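Local shape tokens:
==================
===
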Amino acid sequence: MSVDFFNGATENHHNTEAVGLKERYDLIARILNAKTINEGLEEYQQILNNEFLEFASGVDSLKEKEIALLTLQEIQKELQLVVSYPSLFQKTIVAVGGGFSTGKSTFLNNLLGLKLKLPEDMNPTTAIPTYCLKGKKEVLMGFSQNGGMVELPHLAFDHKFLDSLGFNLKEIMPSMLLSAPSVPFEFLCFIDTPGFNPANQGYTGGDKEASKESLKHAKHILWLISCERGGIESDDLEFLQELYEEEGKQVFIVLSRADRRAKS
């Protein structure tokens, strides 16, 4: 008997607590089996796994080997995205970043008119970077680490759900894509990124790295700062300074949660 993830009302994400063990295994199996067939990508992977390692064995500097390998692995990830969803790179990519609970997901839900909403909460929620763009139908897709794509159930893939799986889902599904006909911007793609500074541990860690990697893919960055906090915090300034020095990205500051700030 197959599991029907998509039956019933799915305007909002289903309650992850109701997801049984079989459904979880089925989800993980489909992600692991999602692969793409592309000769160019396969050739690149073979060169990286074989010829590069053989070449690197003749290099004395361990640091140079590490830098080169990380750079080539980053290129591999981008190639996988290009192969899996080519139209993604025909759009201008805008990343929405900031600290945890600054309202990034709420901002995108309202800006893009999403019915299948990104998970919102006062606690850290966004665990996996999500590309949001205009599409013919409203659907949530996952990019597997093998370069394939799989249609996902309408669940909240937040920190709570990742914790419940007992392993780091981001290792096999590093990013997701949410398309919707309601998105008013045909030539823009937005990335909902994890908060760069949540105090979480275990299987949901690595948010800063995931956020930084997503921001690298963007041409422009919208950086949200909550009015509830009264100003720009030192963590924001340090992260933005680091991002600017390494990538030279253009950053626009957006003040969020103004309605929760008492009038003075």
